[in-house]
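stage 2 :: seqdesign
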């Protein structure tokens, strides 16, 4: 990662305004058009879940503000990030799976299947958890496939905010093809316009995935 030069960064005053807020995140909930991706995955017999996690990581790497963080009260730009994904274990409690960006979906599919299987066999406070949680190079992703929600709020602590984006995918509506996505971002790093640009980047990534695979 590299430090962002505050003397030339257009967000210097915005960063100063929001970085010390008690709750500096803001939330937006949108409806993604996921029917084409769902149909494609069904036809190709590949995992819909793994597909949109893969594409979310791709979109985050394409759109730099999603890889910006607050470290020691200063803005930094990451070169890469991992997805910390909440998954359900057999006992109906969750585990964290840590996925890294791969060059192709099929490489990601193999990687994600291995990581998910291993994570679900471990306790929540696993070795992977102790080695990974709290690090800045994460994207927090949760999945609630049972709920077609219209708003969402996270549990949070008053600890140090790293500016990690928090995404929550909801239930796919099979009639409309729409799927809710809640996204929380740090206001010192991003505004509503940036969220809109990221959502567009994600929809473009989905379209390209369908058309080129």
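stage 2 :: out
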């Amino acid at each position: 990662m590299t430090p962002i030069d505050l003397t030339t960064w257009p967000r210097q005053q915005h960063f100063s305004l929001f970085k010390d807020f008690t709750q500096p995140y803001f939330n937006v909930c949108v409806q993604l058009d996921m029917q084409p991706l769902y149909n494609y995955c069904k036809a190709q017999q590949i995992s819909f879940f793994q597909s949109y996690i893969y594409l979310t990581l791709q979109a985050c790497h394409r759109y730099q503000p999603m890889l910006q963080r607050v470290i020691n009260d200063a803005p930094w730009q990451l070169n890469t990030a991992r997805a910390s994904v909440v998954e359900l274990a057999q006992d109906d409690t969750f585990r964290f799976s840590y996925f890294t960006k791969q060059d192709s979906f099929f490489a990601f599919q193999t990687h994600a299947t291995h990581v998910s299987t291993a994570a679900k066999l471990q306790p929540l406070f696993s070795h992977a958890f102790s080695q990974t949680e709290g690090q800045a190079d994460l994207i927090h992703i949760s999945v609630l496939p049972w709920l077609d929600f219209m708003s969402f709020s996270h549990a949070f602590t008053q600890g140090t905010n790293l500016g990690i984006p928090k995404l929550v995918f909801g239930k796919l509506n099979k009639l409309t093809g729409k799927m809710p996505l809640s996204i929380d971002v740090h206001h010192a790093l991003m505004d509503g316009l940036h969220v809109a640009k990221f959502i567009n980047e994600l929809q473009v990534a989905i379209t390209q995935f369908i058309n080129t695979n």
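stage 3 :: structure notes
- Strands lie at 2-3, 25-33, 68-71, 74-77, 82-88, 94-100, 138-143, 166-169, 178-186.
- The mean pLDDT is 95.
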